Amino acid sequence: MKVIGLGSQVALAKSIARKLSCKFSIAEITQFPDGEAKIRILSDVRNEVAVVVKSLYPANDAVIEIILAASACRAAGAKKVVLVCPYMAYMRQDKSFHPHEAVSARIIAKLLSLYGDAIITIDPHLHRIKHLQQIFSMKAVTLSAMPLIEEYINKRIKNAVIIGPDSESSQWDMQVAKICHLPFTILKKQRQSSYNVKIKFDDTLQVKGKNVILIDDIVSSGRTLLKTIKHLKKFSPKGIYCFCTHGIFAGDAAAKLLKTGAKLISTNTIPSRFTRLDVAETLAKRLMKNI
Ligand code: R5P
Asked: β-strands 23-31, 37-41: how paired?
């Protein structure tokens, strides 16, 4: 097996390779003046299982880099190409919300399936599509970063209550609440646009003097958390911890969230200054098994 890291995922790829005691290579990515990417795998992958590590972030560039890297591995004689895409963008557009909209989740899954033999991802945003295998024609494996969040909470946060900001987050919040033996509540959210969400609160929630733990899969514009935090603060919680698997923190999200005094904790599926949890072991363990 040879693990190939692209762009911002080189550190993660190196760490996976170390845990698997297998070879590591980087791929050189250069750009032509028109923005076109060129990829070169910097070592031999002949007869290897080539593992291409790259989150779909920034989404559009990443898709091109992944399919170019996968094709280059195949052309160089790799016996199998495994795509490790810790963050899978495009999954939220899982239906046509307005007339004539493309259903990105299905299209991107179809495209990536042309280039890999298998794909591994972490906490993909599965909502109307229940399993990745419904949209990928290659083998698709879903892993979760929730055990890392559970471990963090168990070690460091006492007297807490878990709050899920929307119905989609319930799949993660319920699991963490069960493992950490904590009470939980799921709120209702209505998204008007990327930067505008409405959240329905349950004001019988007991948060006074408690540590509130908010868990979501993605923090993008940060507005979901921001609305939730601002409301909860009125009820004097002791502290507010926000966990997410994929910390995009687009635009002013980080600045606005930090201003609330909440603690932000994310994994390295998208490395940022809030990365505290490492998914390398989770990925390496799965790669050790048959894929
Ligand atoms: C959507 O339902 C997801 O689970 C997250 O709640 C959402 O991606 C967060 O987005 P934002 O940070 O832009 O509010």
From this structure: antiparallel
Query: 217: Cβ below 6 Å to ligand 1?
Result: yes
- The residue whose CA has the least distance to atom 13 of ligand 1 is 221
Cβ of residue 124 lying under 6 Å from some atom of ligand 1: no
Residue showing tokens 């560039």: 61
Say yes or no to pLDDT of 203 above 80.
no
Q: Which atom of ligand 1 is nearest to the CA of 165?
A: 6
Sign of CA dihedral 231, 237, 239, 243: negative
Q: What are 156-168's pLDDT values in tens digits?
A: 999 999 999 999 9
CA of 137 to the centre of ligand 1 (A): 27
Pure H helices in 181-279: 223-232, 253-259
* Coil, strand or helix at 1: coil
What whole-number distance in Å separates Cα of residue 22 and Cα of residue 35? Answer: 33
Contacts 24+ apart (CB under 8 A), 125-129: 125/88, 125/91, 125/92, 125/94, 125/168, 125/217, 125/218, 126/91, 126/171, 127/91, 127/92, 127/94, 127/168, 128/94, 128/95, 129/91, 129/94, 129/105
Question: What separation in Å is there between the alpha carbon of 168 and the centre of ligand 1?
Answer: 9
82-103 pLDDT tens trace:
999 999 999 999 999 999 999 9
CA of 104 to the centre of ligand 1 (A): 17
Any ligand 1 atom below 6 A from CB of 166: yes
